[in-house]
Each structure stands twice: as C-alpha cells, then as structure tokens.
Design a protein that fits this description.
It is a multi-pass membrane protein. The chain is α/β, with parallel strands linked by helices. It has helices spanning about 10-30, 40-55, 65-95, 100-130, 145-155, 175-185, 200-215, 255-290, 335-345, 350-355, 370-380, 395-400, 410-425, 430-445; strands at about 135-140, 160-165, 190-195, 215-220, 235, 240-245, 295-300, 305-315, 360-365, 390-395. It contains 14 helices and ten strands. β1 (about 135-140), α5 and β2 form a beta-alpha-beta unit.
Length: about 450
Amino acid sequence: MAKKTGRYSGYIRPFSYCIDLLSINVLSFVLLPSVFHTLLHTVFISLAWVIIATNIGFYEVYRYTKVVAILNKLLKQFALFTILCFAFSGWYTKYSESQVILYFTIAAISLVALIKLFIYYFLRKFRVLFGGNFRQVVIVGNGKSVDQLQEFFNDNPDYGYKLVRVFDFKVEKEEQINEYFSFVLSTQIDEIYCSLADLNSNQINEFIDFTDNNLKILKFLPDTKEVFSRNLSYDYYDYIPVISMRNIPLDETINKILKRTFDIIFSLLVILGVLSWLIPILALFIKVETKGPVFFKQKRNGLNYKEFYCYKFRSMEPNALADLHQVTKGDTRITKVGRFIRKTSIDELPQFFNVLLGEMSVVGPRPHMVSHTEMYARSIDKFMVRHFIKPGITGLAQTKGFRGEVENDKDIIFRVKYDIFYLENWSILLDLKIVFLTLYNAIKGEAKAY
C-alpha cells in the first residue's frame, strides 16, 4: 500500500501565530504607557488577536493566495483589533489619550504586514531558487481549463507546484485511467487535477475512490456539471477556479492547536490522576496470574499511514498470534484479569502515553494492527481516508456500537463511514460528546467489550 506523500507544511502557520503575538506584545510594552503593562492586557490582546484572526481567516494564506487578498485580511484584522483595544482602554484603564492606542495598533499591524509579506515572498523565492516546499502534480483531461492550468503551473514556479505530466483522453478512457493511476503511484504524485468536462459520473467516482484509498489530494476543474459531495470548497489559482473534494477541519492550524491542547491536558489528567496509582496495582495482578510484561505493545498505522507502537495493559497470555489474530468472543488467550480490564476498557488507558507523545489523539479513528490495515485497505472502499488524521483512543464509530471484533464486512464498512464523517465534521464539542459517550458506555457496559 502506497504511503501518503508530503502535505502542506505544518510549521508556517504556527510560526506566523507565534511571531505575530510576540510582535504585538513587545510593541505594547514599548509604545503604551505603564498602565497597560499588566498580565491582563497581555492576555487580552493575545486572545483578541487570535479570535479575530480565526474568524476572518487571517492566517489562511496559501501558495496561490493573491497579495490583494492578504492586504484585505490585514485591513480587517487592523480595524477589529483597534476597536477591541479601544474598548479595553475605556473599560479597564480609563486611559484618555486615544492617539497613543491608535499609534500602537497601526505599528502592530504594519509590523505584522511586513512579516507576513516577507514570509509570503520568501517562500516564493525559496521554491524557485532551492526547489523546496514543492508539490508534484498531474493534470487529467482536455480543453481550455486544462491548458490554462498547465500554463499557470509552468509560468508560476514560485507558487510551489511542479507539473510532472498532463494526461489527455483519447478513445479507451478506462484503460487510460488505470495507466494514469499506476503512474501516480509509481512517481509519488501529491495532487491530481481533473477536468470535469472529460469525465462521466462513474469516472469521477473512480478518481475519488483512488485518491481516497491512496491518500492523494484530488481537485477538479469545474464545468457546467454539478458535483455532489460533502464538503466542496472553491479555490482560485490566479483566476482559474479549482474544486477540492474534501475539506478537513483539522487541516486548519487553529483547530490543530485546539485539539492538541485538549489532548495534552486530558492525557496528563489521566496519567497523573489515574495511571500513577493504577499501574502498580494492575502490574501486581497481571504478574501474579501469568508471567510476561505488564504492557502489551503492537504496531499500528497512524497519521499519514505512519507506523507506531500502540500500548495497552496486557490482557492475554503471551502468544505468537497476538499480532495476527484479533480477539474474539470467548478467546482462550484472555486471562482473568484481562477479561475484567477489557470489559471496562481499562486495558486501553496506557494509550494516553501515545497521546502525550503525539502519536495518537484522545478522539479519532481507532488504529488497526498493521496486517489488518493492509487487508482492509485492499478490500474496503475509502478505508485509507481514516489516516488523514491521528488515530484515537475512542471514536465516533465506537460510540455507535462498532468497536472491538470485526465480525463481518458491515462492521468495518460502518466504522469507516463514521470515521470519515468525523474527520469531515470535527469540532471540539464533538470530541467532548464522544468522550462523554465513551465514559457512559464503559460504565453501562457494552456487548462487544470482550
């Protein structure tokens, strides 16, 4: 199974957030009087900046974003940030010299603008001069839109797209499509751009299924046809409209930060509040009943199909089939202690160490053992889509009854459907709901917890 190639850099936005927040806070100490030099003011302007930026998409600047769009975002950020700064001054400090506050916000947005535009143009030069931060792409189809996009990619290397090949359609489309798929896999293409004018509904679905199952990015050049999907989003490369078939909320930096913060806080609470005293007690019971390690580790596939060791309390007698055969009802390998900790899901608690290390999340698609992942990737449609986000200790599918043993195709098919719904509709409230339902089900007891 082909692994997913590189995605958009995950470091640019966090760096931008940090440098901007540092800039406005340094300027507040330099330009504003001492009455503003308080922790409350620092927290206020930092939160105000982040909240405004999140709502107006201030940091949603991509390689194809126009400078005029960046300037528009800067103007909105400046206006709203200035209003909130004045509101804080009038409410908290009763400071009367409003021009000083205005000087501060003008200086802040000017410095941020310089940094933002420097990064934007630096990356464009970096791509041209050093060949870094590039995406390998192919275009499929004929017609005017294909020619325009081809010209765009060739004339604008600073945008960071390397056009590897353009595939045109002739007579035997089905044979050609299979050839194109083989080429994409063999050359590690990152993105596929398809002209909708050259594809019927079945062929569109073929491309969607192929990219989903091989972790490739698919985008369409629209025509008069309608495309029915869950989260379509439009982007413009110069003036060429491009459709993205899947919008994943956790691709957004602020959402990543929110989820990671939740994961760290929740995992530390469990590790310090529960595992600190539970591990010695369970270790004693596990060791008394059977010889072997206290913890069981197994290779699983995580974000972008990367392998990692998933940890559990050992619930079975040591055996050579642990990495090959999933536990079934009445499995004789399960110990007495193991039966209890599996029934109550206590065996999963060591995975909070995986969460703290960043290999897993508290909530997400449940990871499968490597051998099962490879099997399902070949037989279950869209199974690989689950690897666009980190795996979780619990997930939406588990709260809907699809946990534990996969008894038939229905179990894994519905598990995949719920996982895809989760990654396309993520919110922090959904995570909290899933955690609550998981705790409730663990206390109530579940039929498939064995």
